[in-house]
Amino acid sequence: MCAPGFAPLVAAECDALALPVGEVSPAGVSLSLTLPELFRLNCWSRCASRVIVRLASFEARDFATLEKAATKVPWGRVVHAGASVRLRVTCKKSRLYHSDAVAERIARGIVAAVTGAQVVGRARDDEDDHESDAPTQLIVVRFDHDRCTISADSSGPLLHRRGWRLAVAKAPLRETLAAGILAALPWNGEVPLVDPFCGSGTIGIEAALRARDIAPGLSRHFAMEQWPDAPSAAYAGERAAARARVKPGVPVPIVLRDRDAGAIEAARANAARAGVLDDLVIEQGALSDTDLASIGDRGVVLTNPPYGQRVSGGADLRGLFARLGDVLRAGGRGWRLGMLVPPDRALAGQLRLQLEPALRTANGGLPVELLASVPPKAQSRK
Known about the structure:
The chain has 382 residues and is α/β, with parallel strands linked by helices.
């Protein structure tokens, strides 16, 4: 499962991990994996929201059929004795449209199949999913045109929860979204990166983790580690292999700036928890004081600038965007811009740069796009 527009990015991650990619759809990527491979995907994916495992798929037009089918689902593969289970149920264009009644039948199947298991409640949509620290197994049930698909979440808390972001600034960016725009641009650590509106530092921290080849899930645990007969030794081997890949440092400058002192404090605290504080230059300063030429003769400005509801009172941002364009031009032709903004070309036009969309997705439920300035060589060919 992934954010809108992210499926090709997740598929590319799977290819890089030597995992066999099946169907790529707007909702995500399908694969057929062993348990160690499934662990590797959870550990290494920077862009996926969660990884779910299909347990069963069948047609059911009445509750008697549903309840009978629920007893045949191999619950023992993913639910251990005495486990707590949460259900997420959605029903679309099906005769069985009452999600509470569907959940009741599924719960009966789980409790009958696994000794001491208990269904402790219903989970909300991923966008509002604030899981507690209590270990529970999430089961995802989807009815669509009378077909029921039952899956088990292998990830646990959503994968954007890397474990290092405790301090947040105004309008924080999810870690998976920051990783996605880095991949879509793309940026792989070959040139300097600057974020002049860094907030709590998410883009820069994700950039440092990417450049150092630090797996985003290296320091967290996953729901699949609690499954019955989990191959713990194989999982430990995957973690050890991930640790062995970590590089000692970042080869290029990553500069995070913000005019707000609270944001800078949050960025430093988060970077320290992520273990990349020494890989970043984090400084307080206004956009107009950003000197790209002093950082290098080429590089990338990648940022999530203020816009719309992200600024108090919806202030006019035309001047701010115009200054951002000035900063880019002052840096020289070797500097490229990538910025995550709503689809407002009038505002983006204030930059006076040739831009093209590199990614279309959503942030906080609102449509956004990653606009990237066209490299000088590409402009000259047009």
